[in-house]
C-alpha cells in the first residue's frame, strides 16, 4: 500500500502541513519536530510522488556523494574526483550538469541512513557511498534494503572503497584490497628484520580497520612471528599520538609501528620525536593510503598507495552510466607498497 503524507503526519504526531514544511524546507520548524518527521519518513519509507511534487521534479538531476569526513584528504580526494567526473558531459533535464552534493555523515550510521532517505525522497539520479562501512548487522540490513529500493526506482548506486552490502545485488562496488595492502606493508617490515611490531588500528567496528589488521596478522602468522600490541582509535593524528605511550608500555622493545593510515602515522611520529626517539633509527613507522603530505613528511613515510583520485573518477562515471559496471558488480582495487625513509632495518 502506498504511504501518504497523512500517514507520515500520523506517525510523527503532527499535521500534514508540518510534514510538508519539513520536507520542502521552506518554513522554520522546531528541531525536535523535524527529527520526529524525518524518523517517521524513514520508518514508513515515504517517497514524494514525483508528478505531484515540484521539489522532486526540480531535484531529479541530484547526485549524492556520502563520505565520513570531507576534511579528511582520503575522502576529499575521492569526492572531488567524483564530482569532476559527474560533470564530464553529464547533462541534466534542462541540459545542464548534474548537481553533485557531498553529504558528510561524521561516521554516524544514523546520519548515513538519513541522507539516503533524503536522497531517495528527492529521487536522486545516483548515490556514491565512499569509504568503509560500519560492521553492524542491523545497519547493514537497513542499508541494503534502502539501496535496493533506490536502485529499483532508477537510482544508480555506487560503492567506492567499500565492500558490497550483503544481500544487495544492485550496486557497483570498487573495493580497496586493504587486506593485501596490510600484508605487503608487514612483509616489508619483516623483510627488514623487524619481529616486534606494534599496530595502531582504526575504530574496531569498521570494515577498513578489520581488513587492514587482518592483512597485518596474516603476514605475521605466515612468517611465524608473534603479534605485537594493538591499540584502536580514530583515524586521526591525535589517536596516533596517544597510542604510542600504550604501545611502548606494553612492549618497550618495539622496533616498528604500523599505523591505520598516514594521518595516524604522523601522530605516531610526533609522539616518538617528543620522547627523543629517531625515525627510523630507533623505530620504523609505516602508514596507509599515501595521502599527499606523506612524501613531504620528515622522514618521508613508507605507506600503501591507494588510487584515490582514479577511484573517485571511476565512481563518478559509474554513477553517470558513462562507464560499464564491473563484471559481477564488484571490482577489486589493489594498493601499491611505497617504500620511503621512515622504515629501515632495526638497530643491533
Arithmetic mean pLDDT: 90
User: Looking at CATH, which topology of the largest domain would you report?
Assistant: Rossmann fold
**Biggest sheet character:** 6 strands, parallel
Number of domains: 2
What does the radius of gyration come to? 23 Å
Give the ordered list of helices and strands. Answer: HHHHEHEHEHEEHEHEHEHEEHEE
Which CATH top level class of the largest domain fits?
Alpha Beta
Structural class: alpha/beta
- Content of β-strand: 5-15%
Tell me about this structure.
43% of the residues lie in helices and 15% in strands. Strand 8, helix 11 (262-274) and strand 9 form a beta-alpha-beta unit. It starts with a helix and ends in a 10-residue tail after the last strand. It has helices spanning 5-12, 16-24, 31-44, 54-58, 73-86, 109-121, 137-152, 178-192, 207-223, 237-250, 262-274, 308-320, and strands at residues 62-67, 99-104, 126-130, 156-160, 172-176, 197-201, 230-232, 256-259, 284-286, 303-305, 330-333, 336-338. It has 12 helices and 12 strands. The chain has 2 domains: 5-176, Response regulator (Rossmann fold), CATH 3.40.50; 178-306, Rossmann fold (3-Layer(aba) Sandwich), CATH 3.40.50. It is α/β, with parallel strands linked by helices. The strands form 3 sheets. It has a 6-stranded parallel β-sheet with strand order 2-1-3-4-5-11, sandwiched between helices. Strands 7-6-8-9 form a 4-stranded parallel β-sheet, with helices on both faces. A two-stranded antiparallel sheet has the order 10-12.
Amino acid at each position: 500500500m502506498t504511504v501518504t503524507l497523512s500517514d507520515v503526519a500520523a506517525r510523527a504526531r503532527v499535521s500534514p502541513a508540518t510534514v510538508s514544511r519539513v520536507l520542502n524546507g521552506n518554513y522554520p520548524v522546531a528541531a525536535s519536530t523535524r527529527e520526529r518527521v524525518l524518523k517517521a519518513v524513514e520508518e514508513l519509507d515515504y517517497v514524494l510522488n514525483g508528478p505531484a511534487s515540484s521539489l522532486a521534479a526540480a531535484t531529479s538531476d541530484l547526485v549524492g556523494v556520502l563520505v565520513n569526513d570531507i576534511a579528511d584528504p582520503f575522502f576529499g580526494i575521492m569526492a572531488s574526483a567524483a564530482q569532476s567526473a559527474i560533470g564530464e558531459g553529464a547533462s541534466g533535464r534542462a541540459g545542464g550538469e548534474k548537481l553533485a552534493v557531498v553529504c558528510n555523515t561524521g561516521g554516524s550510521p544514523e546520519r548515513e541512513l538519513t541522507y539516503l532517505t533524503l536522497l531517495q525522497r528527492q529521487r536522486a539520479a545516483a548515490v556514491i557511498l565512499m569509504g568503509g562501512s560500519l560492521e553492524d548487522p542491523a545497519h547493514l540490513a537497513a542499508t541494503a534494503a534502502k539501496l535496493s529500493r533506490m536502485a529499483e526506482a532508477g537510482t544508480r548506486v555506487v560503492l567506492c572503497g567499500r565492500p558490497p552490502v550483503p544481500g544487495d545485488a544492485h550496486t557497483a562496488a570498487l573495493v580497496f584490497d586493504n587486506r593485501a595492502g596490510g600484508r605487503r606493508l608487514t612483509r616489508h617490515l619483516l623483510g627488514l628484520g623487524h619481529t616486534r611490531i606494534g599496530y595502531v588500528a582504526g575504530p574496531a567496528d569498521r570494515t577498513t580497520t578489520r581488513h587492514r589488521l587482518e592483512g597485518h596478522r596474516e603476514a605475521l602468522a605466515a612468517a611465524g612471528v608473534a603479534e605485537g600490541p594493538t591499540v584502536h582509535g580514530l583515524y586521526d593524528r591525535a589517536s596516533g599520538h596517544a597510542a604510542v605511550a600504550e604501545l611502548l608500555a606494553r612492549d618497550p622493545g618495539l622496533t616498528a609501528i604500523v599505523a591505520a593510515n598516514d594521518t595516524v602515522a604522523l601522530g605516531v611520529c610526533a609522539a616518538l620525536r617528543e620522547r627523543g626517539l629517531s625515525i627510523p633509527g630507533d623505530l620504523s613507522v609505516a602508514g596507509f593510503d599515501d595521502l599527499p603530505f606523506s612524501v613531504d613528511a620528515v622522514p618521508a613515510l613508507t605507506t600503501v598507495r591507494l588510487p584515490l583520485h582514479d577511484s573517485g573518477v571511476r565512481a563518478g562515471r559509474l554513477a553517470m552510466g558513462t562507464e560499464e559496471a564491473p563484471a559481477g558488480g564488484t571490482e577489486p582495487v589493489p594498493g601499491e607498497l611505497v617504500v620511503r625513509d621512515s622504515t629501515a632495518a632495526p638497530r643491533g
